Amino acid sequence: MPQCCAVPMCANKKGGHKFPTEDKNRLKQWLVAIRRDKFTPTKNSLVCKSHFTKDDYQLPKDSVLEKPRPVLKKCAVPSRFPWIDQNSSLHQKKKERHQRRLARNERKISVQVHINNEKEKDDTFLMETTNFFEVEIEFEKKQNDVGIQCDLCGSDNLKTLKECLQNENKNKKSSIANVLDNQCGRSTVLYWFPRL
């Protein structure tokens, strides 16, 4: 069964190199390089060949073959990734998405402005001359933080308000409203429901 590459955003299933599980220091370097610190590789986990450079390979010294297959150096660490490679299609797609987002934020809206130039009255009909102009208006999205400060009549008034609510509740046995208007002189409405 073909194994997928363990590098994020890579779905390559063509061969690869197993993680150096016997060398803990080198394993940590690989995990940091592929941005998967908390990943625990299994015996079948692979990093595909596309994440290594030509300098990461060497020819075996004791090969009897005419064209020996290069092997990965013991000190090699994967170093080619989509998030580093500026020419990758992934980077290009992200750049295009960013451009589209900027275009959305700075929308140009074409508006027809209706201008009445002349109004002429005649005995038999009303003639209205209208000109249309096309105007481009640029809108730029800006965000402003807004803060609202509320004052609840001060702590002394709150004690008075609480006492007033309790006294009113004894008499009415229902909800009490507009008490804040009387105490603070504001148009705030307070609804209070007694416990049953």
UniProtKB/TrEMBL annotation:
What GO MF terms are annotated?
DNA binding; zinc ion binding
Q: Which domain of life is it from?
A: Eukaryota
Q: Name one Pfam family in it.
A: THAP
Signal peptide (from-to): none
UniProt keywords, alphabetically: DNA-binding, Metal-binding, Zinc, Zinc-finger
InterPro entries registered for this protein in UniProt: THAP_domain_protein, THAP_Znf
**Record carries keyword rRNA processing:** no
Q: What sequence ranges are listed for the domain THAP-type?
A: 1-81
Is Nuclease one of the keywords? no
Q: What SMART domains does the record tag this protein with?
A: THAP
The protein here is known as (apollo) hypothetical protein
The organism's taxonomic lineage, starting at the top: Eukaryota, Metazoa, Ecdysozoa, Arthropoda, Hexapoda
